[in-house]
UniProtKB/TrEMBL annotation, chains A, B, C, D:
<feature type="domain" description="GFO/IDH/MocA-like oxidoreductase">
    <location>
        <begin position="153"/>
        <end position="285"/>
    </location>
</feature>
<dbReference type="InterPro" id="IPR036291">
    <property type="entry name" value="NAD(P)-bd_dom_sf"/>
</dbReference>
<dbReference type="InterPro" id="IPR051317">
    <property type="entry name" value="Gfo/Idh/MocA_oxidoreduct"/>
</dbReference>
<dbReference type="Pfam" id="PF22725">
    <property type="entry name" value="GFO_IDH_MocA_C3"/>
</dbReference>
<dbReference type="GO" id="GO:0000166">
    <property type="term" value="F:nucleotide binding"/>
</dbReference>
<dbReference type="InterPro" id="IPR055170">
    <property type="entry name" value="GFO_IDH_MocA-like_dom"/>
</dbReference>
<dbReference type="InterPro" id="IPR000683">
    <property type="entry name" value="Gfo/Idh/MocA-like_OxRdtase_N"/>
</dbReference>
<feature type="domain" description="Gfo/Idh/MocA-like oxidoreductase N-terminal">
    <location>
        <begin position="15"/>
        <end position="142"/>
    </location>
</feature>
<protein>
    <submittedName>
        <fullName>Predicted dehydrogenase</fullName>
    </submittedName>
</protein>
<dbReference type="Pfam" id="PF01408">
    <property type="entry name" value="GFO_IDH_MocA"/>
</dbReference>
Length: 390, 390, 390, 390
């Protein structure tokens, strides 16, 4: 069963989607909806869009949901939609982290597919329970580590898997931002508020919010597994309750080494996610803010710029490419690719078949890996940088 | 009536859309559909997707159109949809240029809004007839000069209008590509085939296909009007019937000068649309392949990089911005902004109101200007570069 | 006789150099001296550094010249040095343009080699007389079109000569600056003063000062000859007596086309000399402000970045490279290469031999070509852009 | 006593310079000579250019040294030159690291100024002895941490000292190269040979060769002092005897944090020295391969590009700037600035005066700091990354 980004609605019509969270004022909910719409594979038909009933209702109306499918709670939505003849087949969970587990549980146990924002949960205990549920449920679990959907990330992964870099030696990952340079949470700004709150975010601040993205991407592209890490988490802004800067040294199985830097207090950086991987034969360099470009540096030859859709881009990138080279695709397209692959898998599931090997969306195991990374960073940092095995 | 990109379906539900052209194998049809879906404002419900009946039917089925709303011709579609209670309110015309006029005519005269690909038509005569129709029809006419939808283009336009560059002196526009470096049309490649065919494309090849984009953008951003031009059109590839390289010198009303270069035979260039505008007090520089960045160069001060969503971006860019700074928006988002603004205007029209001044989609006058530009370039070039007044 | 940049003093000791112009407050004189010193091939021993006797004396003292070799005029210097046993072997002429001819004459006719700043002269008549003199004199004439000394420019030239781009179709040259955005000459600033004065600069302002550099470089690299041009010279700043913006359309022998833009009123541009050349098989792109990089764009393959000293750089670049890849060489090194090649030729001349074919400094014919370019631009612009044959 | 790059020979004539090492086939010797010549402040008059007598003699002849001032050993040179009336005033030591101390000792104890390549020595014991000598000798000791001579590095240092970034939080330094990706030393390549040999290089390979440069620059610019570090040194290439990759986590006095990565096995990197420093109010970013640019990122404002010689560049950069903005200065110019400042200090010493506070060349204390850094990295790495205080 082939897959192709930009492929539009197929037999059986659009997939009926619900959403938990994402009411007015939220950021990531709108992103999920745009991503779900772009390729025409999903139709949003139900929502528990806010824990505030008024806001939930208003948000549902603005989105054109039928009033009787705007719910006051995810539990209510799960229960009723599961009984409807045309109830939702999948749900997007876009709440703060601490709600991922309780929400996902209600849908998974009723066989409704879950598309969940990262990190997996706010605690390791929740993560393990969720993993257990996901394994026994017949439903799919998709984790939106969205950067894996960028075509040139697929290209990089394919090149490394094909041995074009030789044995990997070095993985340098970074994700600097600047939006928490000052104590924004003190202003009540919604995003800053929950992301710096241990109750809702978990034990990791910057490390959970963006460090996991960089870590996930490093593993996704390199194909390596982290063996142990030494971390230094810092909170620079006075009064902040979670880390806002993350430094990690990494030892991968097989001998590769790496460093990871994530920060939310580096002025001038917006979403500076960057990955550089070097092997015995060559290297690859990629930056999220110029995602259509991939530098390939074969040792002893001039550097080559591989572009999305251009000469040198292979099948893996091609499958998730929507427009020709030189017309930039961005964040929403990459995000939509996760939805596109989820749709593909859901249609395969409808037919009782597995999806093909080219479907690469992150799932529960990537979620657990991310939680283990956060946990190890927190423990290493508390132990003055002691190496922690994963 | 405020407008905001990313704003999702509003009162009255999605706008019912038809499409002419855009069947399997086409390029721009899929782009229009993604753009129409992104913000959830449109629902594709009918199509005359191909002049080949088999392909039309197959394409419609793949897109999930009801069989009775897949038509064999645009004329049939216009006639029947106009009579349906829930017939289409708008149509996207995504055919080769020579079909723009006959197709648009059928819909405009029935009061169905038209969203049409550029250039306006294949001949000046058609352009004038279409303009006449558009002025008398109650329906809206939207021309997808999509690059005007990029947020940083809106930013640049706003800054110039506010006088931040002082009186404009120079407009340097360019749009190099490389896809026609060899005689691709000889291979039967669909895009190359019609774009190099005077019958379907019109008298301009490269100048009509991308020269008009650069010209449109230069005028949109600078606010200037072209007074006269001197052009050199060249066909480098043997056997090609239209120009594949365009050089233009430009004199604008008020004394500004400019140059425009468009090429389809410049190896290494994908969609290198670039605009540089300089005034007495400062300059602006922008490149389509890095559309989230705008350089502002106030004379005597360090250059500043204004980013989409970042500090320094104003209201005009903000209205058409979907995701925060550092998460790149690209071609589809810019294209979708034209659809978003069309939707806004259509909803205003439903309510019998004009859309607000912040709605900036190109229309019939920009279409006529583009046709005049093509015509003047062709005439000047034939007259050995004689200056031609516009 | 091999040549290599960075090669230091050879048999016979340093070449004794004099200088005309370049006293305190001048710009280009100091550049020539640094260039002459870098490789240790020259020793400045005499000067007529200023027409102002006090300034001449003070400048000579600051440079450590013997008092009796600081002259009040170039004529006096030429006469006396020619008679000295250890008199100068070469002279650098770094005055405003109108003095190039009278100064060069005095030295050439006495068999003293001349290294002269560009453009050749301030009038075509002077240029022709100088060319006549240079042809009959036994002395060498070197014109410091210094950009030809950049290693990646040599690389580009070599690649084109070797056919790596196929037949050349397009030459896009530009050289924007911003330093004359306002009427700087009104402030008495020395550089602005003479460069905007027709008496000292000649009939071309911007076209003579930097347009000729861009033109020289385009021909040097492409190997093409200009057949005819159509130009538009503009003076944007009120009260200025010469052009400050230059637009040129170019037709080369053999069918290639090109455009050239030079400006001194483009805010944010420092020395934005840029060359892009495209052929049937590929292209090359280079920018003076990042001179160690050369983009090579073979059609249908990923772009490659060739770096000075890196893989992919060939013999022509290697000969003029001083330090390894990644340690940037700049303007002075490129300039010094002209001096290095002049030294090489002078040493060959001492031995009564011609210098080898790898010595590529510009000379009298490049000087005449530059003067013809200025003249044609001025005439074409006055004739409303009429095509002028060269 | 003011200083200015590009300032040429002053009263008292050129400074007489000797050189130890730097014979044919060496790399850094030629660099020192070009740097010494550029501003006309030095004259190379003596040398012990090689431990191989034949090569020493041939090299001296090629450089035009008088035969009786080409020595077979540095000891002989020091002894004899000290007795000559016009003997050398300063000596450049450009040997492998293990010879720095024995050579410097001979000159310092005779009051001859020393300009020495980095790192200071090959062992900590030698470093301490050298420091003792330098403190008691009346002669100056200059260490060529040449990157401190780049104008935009001076600019960055000045801005931080002036508080434009507020309290510094983060220092991210890196210096990737690729030239030792394969086992180049096995080929006998001279540079690779001694740099990977513990006897000649010292206990640090990559960390000593380039890690110290990055560390030196980080401290020079930030004004911070390192408190403790945790390091991981790796040798990727089989058979190599010293580290070829360096990862360091850094804690600075006052609470700033940092990371440092240096590598000689990162394909595609030439001399990728890069420094990013962030404070409470803004950040600065600089890359050695584009040294004329400095990004300034005040929090909450658009990024600004400060260029060498351009608007926004201050007095500290101006003092070491030779040519106007847009004409790139590179590695040799930065290196020459160390020589220029050494000359300034030597002339001041001639006059019995101290040099002014604007003379910033690195000296013995920077040398000791570098040795302590190498030592701490080696010890931390051997102790599995234990934090080591400096």
């Amino acid at each position: 069963m082939a897959i192709e980004a930009g492929q539009e609605t197929q037999g059986g019509g659009r997939i009926r989607l619900g959403m938990v969270g994402g009411g007015e004022g939220a950021f990531i909910g709108g992103v999920h909806r745009m991503a779900a719409r772009l390729d025409g594979q999903f139709e949003l038909v139900a929502g528990a869009l806010s824990s505030d009933p008024e806001r939930a209702k208003a948000s549902a109306a603005a989105l054109g949901l039928a009033p009787d499918r705007s719910y006051g709670s995810f539990a209510e939505m799960a229960k009723r939609e599961a009984r409807l003849k045309d109830g939702i087949e999948a749900v997007a969970i876009v709440t703060p982290n601490h709600m991922h587990y309780p929400a996902a549980r209600e849908f998974l146990k009723r066989g409704i597919h879950v598309i969940c924002d990262k990190p997996l949960t706010s605690t390791m205990a929740d993560a393990k329970k969720l993993a257990g549920l996901a394994q026994t449920s017949g439903a799919l679990f998709v984790l939106t580590h969205n950067y894996t959907g960028y075509p040139m990330i697929r290209q990089a992964r394919e090149m490394i898997a094909a041995g074009e870099l030789g044995t990997i030696r070095l993985v340098q990952a970074e994700y600097p931002q600047d939006w928490l340079t000052e104590r924004l949470e003190a202003s009540g700004q919604k995003q800053a508020d929950w992301r710096t709150d241990p109750q809702r975010s978990g034990a990791g601040g910057c490390v959970g919010d963006i460090g996991t993205h960089a870590y996930n991407l490093a593993c996704f592209v390199s194909g390596l597994e982290l063996e142990e890490l030494s971390a230094e988490l810092t909170t620079f802004v006075e009064g902040r309750r979670l880390d806002d800067n993350v430094q990690v040294m990494m030892r991968f199985r097989g001998g590769a080494r790496g460093m990871l830097w994530a920060s939310q207090v580096a002025p001038g950086n917006e979403n500076g996610l960057r990955l550089r991987i070097y092997g015995e034969k060559g290297g690859l360099e990629w930056e999220q803010e110029q995602p259509n470009h991939l530098w390939f540096t074969p040792f002893g030859e001039p550097k080559r710029l591989i572009t999305r859709g251009g000469a040198g881009a292979g099948a893996a990138a091609g499958r998730v490419t929507r427009v020709p080279a030189g017309h930039p695709e961005g964040y929403l397209e990459g995000f939509a690719t996760i939805y596109q692959e989820a749709a593909h898998a859901i249609r395969a599931a409808r037919a009782g078949k597995p999806s093909g090997p080219e479907v690469l969306y992150p799932g529960i195991s990537e979620g657990l890996a991310g939680m283990a990374f956060i946990d190890a960073c927190v423990r290493s940092s508390r132990a003055n940088g002691r190496w922690i095995a994963l």
